[in-house]
Amino acid sequence: MPIVQVSILEGRDKEQIRQMIEGITQAVTASLQVKPDQVRVLVTELPPSHWGVGGVTKEQTRFL
């Protein structure tokens, strides 16, 4: 049972997340030859203050 964990910045709508889960599931089923109901996709949404790139949070880069 493949489990895929995805961390994204918050702010996407439910339909975008649903489409992402569907696409990931399709990719895993094709590459690992498993059934869709065997695939688990876990999505974690993080606020910009909890996402850092190069020592700076995404919240900070909004103001740069």
Automatic annotation (TrEMBL):
<feature type="domain" description="4-oxalocrotonate tautomerase-like">
    <location>
        <begin position="2"/>
        <end position="59"/>
    </location>
</feature>
<keyword id="KW-0413">Isomerase</keyword>
<dbReference type="InterPro" id="IPR014347">
    <property type="entry name" value="Tautomerase/MIF_sf"/>
</dbReference>
<protein>
    <recommendedName>
        <fullName>Tautomerase</fullName>
        <ecNumber>5.3.2.-</ecNumber>
    </recommendedName>
</protein>
<dbReference type="InterPro" id="IPR004370">
    <property type="entry name" value="4-OT-like_dom"/>
</dbReference>
<dbReference type="GO" id="GO:0016853">
    <property type="term" value="F:isomerase activity"/>
</dbReference>
<comment type="similarity">
    <text>Belongs to the 4-oxalocrotonate tautomerase family.</text>
</comment>
<dbReference type="InterPro" id="IPR018191">
    <property type="entry name" value="4-OT"/>
</dbReference>
<feature type="active site" description="Proton acceptor; via imino nitrogen">
    <location>
        <position position="2"/>
    </location>
</feature>
<dbReference type="Pfam" id="PF01361">
    <property type="entry name" value="Tautomerase"/>
</dbReference>
